[in-house]
Queue: 4 jobs
Job 1
Amino acid sequence: MRGAEPETQAPYAHIVDEDAYAIAVYGVPYRMALGDTDQLKKQATLKREGKKDMKPSRVEVLQKDDGPVIVYLFPRAKEITKDDRKILFDAEIGRLQLGQSFYLEDMVYQGKREL
């Protein structure tokens, strides 16, 4: 019997295009992930110092074997540049308050900034 093939792409790669930055949130209780995606969209932002907050253009909830994954898609039209040293992701999912900082110097994959 063969072992499982390793996953070579992010679990949300099929919903992300080149025009979006994506942030995936894991570990959310199933009952909270069932909320209205429009509400999830309204309650999330990417914050950059000295710039207007970015709102997601779309939110997808994927059901995986180990639980739901909430994927926030932000438009690349509002480009994140090398001058944006730190990005803060804020979101509210039901009663959960999330906040995560991303330092852009740490977010490079194959020579390209990835978020």
Job 2
Amino acid sequence: WLVLYLKEIHPPRVPALAEVEPHVRAAVSNQKLQQTAMRKLEEARRQMAQGKTLDQVAAELGAEVKETEEFGAQGAIPGLGSNPELAKAALALKTGEVGGPIADAQGALLFQVTDHKGWDPKQFASSREQTRSSLIQERVSRLQGALIEKRRRELEVEFDRQLLEQLGMAPEQG
């Protein structure tokens, strides 16, 4: 737990260029790296269409091939985090097909679908209560979040982004 208190209030202002320059440079650098990764992976995908395997292409690029656990359409992919665009693209492909490149927080991804599992009514019936509990918990969390957000607006809470970044935290996006 962390307890924060309001020390002082600064009026809104446009920060000086020297203040934001390092962040802007880092963002532009990351964007250029992502664009480069996307171009390289597009070329890699063309090579795969000519018969190369994902492992061969990855070795040439000095990249690692990772296999994820099963995931669904929610967008949360074990080992990669939340990427709804990637989940949707992967679920639209057939086993063996290659997809991507798709931008990701770490750069870009090229992927190959190794297996598809369909909906199993027997398995659904056996996990029905667990699913119901999860949905109820999700609704409670959303309601709690909405109540907290309403209260935050009523109290006019503002975050000091610089302080939160120094503490290794990021304010909630709103």
Job 3
Amino acid sequence: MRRSIKSTTRKSIVSLPLAVLMMALLLSTGAFAQQPASETDSWQFGVSIYGWFPDLAGETAFTQPGGSNEFKIDIDDILDNLKFTLMGTFDVRKGRWGILTDVIYMDVGNSQTGTREATIGGREIPVNASANVDLDLKSWVWTLTGYYRALDQPGMTLDVVAGARYLDVEQKVNWNVTGNVESIPVPDRTGAAEAGLTNWDALIGLRGRFAFGAKNAWFVPYYFDIGAGDSDLTWQGIAGLGYAFHWGEVVAAWRYLYYDLSSDEPIKDMNFSGPAIGVKFRW
């Protein structure tokens, strides 16, 4: 019964912002549907290559170093332990209709050598023992959306976005305890634990920009989406500052991505938060 009440409460919390956003989308499309587009009906393409430098935080099902279920990997540790990353977007539009896809892959880790701030097999490490602990996190985040350009003016655009986001996360922790380990059972002195998940979520949202300055070269881009599915709730927000050239644009922004995952998942919740900078080429 407790789980049912919690689930109902969570769904009510999720449904409110979804309803508000849906109303905003309907009002925006109704208000701007009759406005002429400033662009032609020819095909337009854009490719972005960017770097996003987020801190990673969340809660996992198994105990982390320090005896807590919560984990956090700071951007300094990410840069020191980054194994591979891939980030980019592709945008295609004809008239008012378009498709946008965004792909993020990160393989990062965190290590603690000779630490005593850990629990192994539910037991604290003895005073005269130490452990080497390695934490590794691999993640795919793929967003695929279609959009409708509800507002297209020289200094302002507004797109109504709908689509899906795919999340694949694999988290591993390995440990090796040395020293006086008599109080720790032999099977627990060296080992590994693993947690992972794969899910899809439906999304709705808004994106656009406000331009200013000479020839509207400077602009403030924004993006927001919210959704649910395999996740109880996911939302993403992006805002920043950019400058447009004849060939494309350069953008610096702050990006936040949050997941509230199902209670039976090995990873309970996680968020990515940090600055991003990128270059977009368009033709």
Job 4
Amino acid sequence: MMRILVTSVGSATGVNLIRGFQKVGDYVVGTDINPYGYTAGSCLANKFYQIVLAEDKNYLSMLSDIIVAEKIDILIPINDIEIYEVAQEIDNISCHCIIPDVQTIEMIRDKYICNNKMKEIGIHVPETMYSVDNEKVILRNRFGVGSKGIEIIPKGVQIPIFNPDDKFLQKFVDGEEYTVDVLADQNGNPVYIIPRKRLEVKSGVATKVSIENDFSLINSVKVILKHIKLPGFSNIQFIKDENGICWFVEINGRFSGCGAATLSVCRNYLDEYKQIVRGKKDFQTINDQVKWNTIVTRYYEECIYENSIS
């Protein structure tokens, strides 16, 4: 049994990891900015602490105190801002924490810079537009999470004025949306590369997915991992067009919001993660014992906090 600290347990991502680690016998401590009982994750964790926002000057000291008090073996930050804050002070974290380094996080956070890096290494990326000639385009935030900050602008509609330091234009690519869940060792070598196609999305979160052994996506991710070190959990998003071309969308250096789907079809995923934390690097195979061609659906479940109303 390991003692694991998961942050942002008010998110679906946090709940997924709490349940996943508990299923393999681990003790999970959770943190969130909301008080106990006001998120499902706070009720599901073995122990819960309310904590300040990651931007707060006291965030890292509070996190460090919890790590010491709870004898934590592994810290898993969930929120992108938390990951960045932790990465800057990684040498002062008194437990294992497998995340990309600060330079890598800064690069993948900036969607414009990350897109240019993908072009350099030969990955298909939707064309960045500097002038628009009656085409359908998307206006993207350079810094954002998931689909937030993406505006689809139809053909013939005037492009709004924007600051290129904050936003950029890309050619619209029509196709199927894929997220590829990645687990890599501490050197960034892949252990799992699991593509899943979005079949249904509610409020920006995939609720029905297809797990697919898609070699074009898997090979694209292998190329990316040769150039960008992404230890531990990450996920990479693509759009596959009608010609089968996989167009890069973004990289997230964390466990994904629908990562529970991948956990459900890879019985060794979290055990392998814990072996990575312990320093294992000589994994013989990629994607060991995966239930390919599987449809995974998700549902809501209620958690009741009886003392929430005085």
